[in-house]
Amino acid sequence: MAFIDRIKFDAVDNNLLVWKYPSESITVGCQLIVNQSQEAILFKGGKALDIFGPGTHTLSTGNIPLLNKLINLPFGGETPFTAEVWFVNKTAIRDLKWGTLSPIPLIDPKYNYPISARAFGRWGLRVSDTRSFIVQLVGTEQYKNSAEIEQYFEGEIVQRLSNELSNYLVKENISVFEVNSKLNDLSKFVENDVSHEFDRFGIEVVNFNVERISIPDEEKLKIQDILGKRMEIEQISQASVGSAYITMRSLDVLEKAAQNEGGAAGSMLAGGLGLGMGMGAGIPLGQNIGQSLSVNQNTQGQALNTGSITEKLKQLKELLDIDLISQSDFDEKKRDLLKGL
Q1: What is the pLDDT of residues 251-305, one digit of tens each?
Q2: Which of 72, 79, 196, 222 is the S-S candidate for 28 at Cβ 3.0 to 4.6 Å?
Q3: What is the 8-class DSSP label of residue 52?
Q4: Do 329 and 300 form a contact (C-beta atoms < 8 A)?
Q5: C-alpha–C-alpha distance, residues 337 and 341, integer Å
């Protein structure tokens, strides 16, 4: 077995996070060369031992105390031993992409309706604690290349985002259809949670951005149909309540008139419901009362109709603002509603 006397790693890709030197046969007295923005760490028997920063290091019993304590190297000479040497990139790696592989199921807090959404963005990291990073992600030899490590981190991001997106919508009381206008706030909200999680891996999150929240077209059509039906139900409900109110008030007036013969009834009738006041001779009292109530109902009904149309226009504008209907759809519905005035 040939023992090496010089250990070095020149990364060809700055995005490479961690690299293991291919040979484990080392001698005391060999040189370990660590480039700028790198750290090297020795492993033996699955344990993370001595760490070396940038520079040229001649390995000796003096500068590998943890390894020496483990294997009890004799002092002096080119004593052979076996150990793993891992190089860790300490530079900030930016412009890493993340995205949801499958839609995130949500309950839209504004419309109280289940919706699936996808999310995409970019982020950046830097290894802040080499020992913690290696022990938790590489020491078991489960991860040996940056692609696998980044894939693990991306999974963590998506999981955290799924939870925090729901929390953010509830906190801000907004629909998922409105969240793209608040991506900066959402990014900071999720980054805070992601950063706490990655700290324990010795990873610093240097930037995090949610760039887009997308709703599948079929989901948009579903919510558009549901909201359209809900608007119709609300209009019917409002009209029914208004009609019932007018009828109840009319019955109250008639009942009070019947209970107050001569006194209050006479005053009320003299005040406009009956005896004179522009009424023709011989016209029945009940007819005039009915006519007055009819006018009153029509007036209140028109006011109710105007209010209903106003509310419906507001709802249509809201659907337009969140892109659930087009401008042409809005204009057409608006014209139809205004014709009913």
Answers
A1: 565 556 656 655 544 444 444 444 344 444 444 444 444 454 454 545 545 544 5
A2: 79
A3: E
A4: no
A5: 7
Could you tell me the two tokens for 258? 């019947």
Measured distance CA(14)–CA(41) in Å, rounded: 19
C-alpha to C-alpha distance for 48 and 30, rounded to whole angstroms: 20
Buried-exposed string 109-130: b where 16+ CB fall within 10 A, e elsewhere: bbbebebbbebebbbebbbbbb
Which residue carries 């900030």 as its tokens? 92
How far, in Å, CA of 119 to CA of 30, rounded?
Answer: 50
Q: Which residues pair with 88 in a beta bridge?
A: 18, 39
Question: Domains of the chain, with CATH numbers?
Answer: 4-88 (no CATH), 93-215 (3.30.479.30), 219-339 (no CATH)
- From 212, 214, 195, select the one nearest 203 (Cα to Cα): 195
Round to whole Å and give the CA distance between 120 and 249. Answer: 58
Q: Do the beta carbons of residue 153 and residue 125 sit within 8 Å? A: yes
Q: What is the pLDDT of residue 136?
A: 81
In angstroms and rounded to an integer, the radius of gyration of the C-alpha atoms of the chain is: 38
Beta strands at 55-58 and 18-20: parallel, antiparallel or unpaired: unpaired
C-alpha span between 268 and 265 (Å, rounded): 5
Given a cut of 60, is residue 59 above it in pLDDT? yes
Give, as one character, the DSSP assignment of residue 73: P
C-alpha span between 124 and 210 (Å, rounded): 12
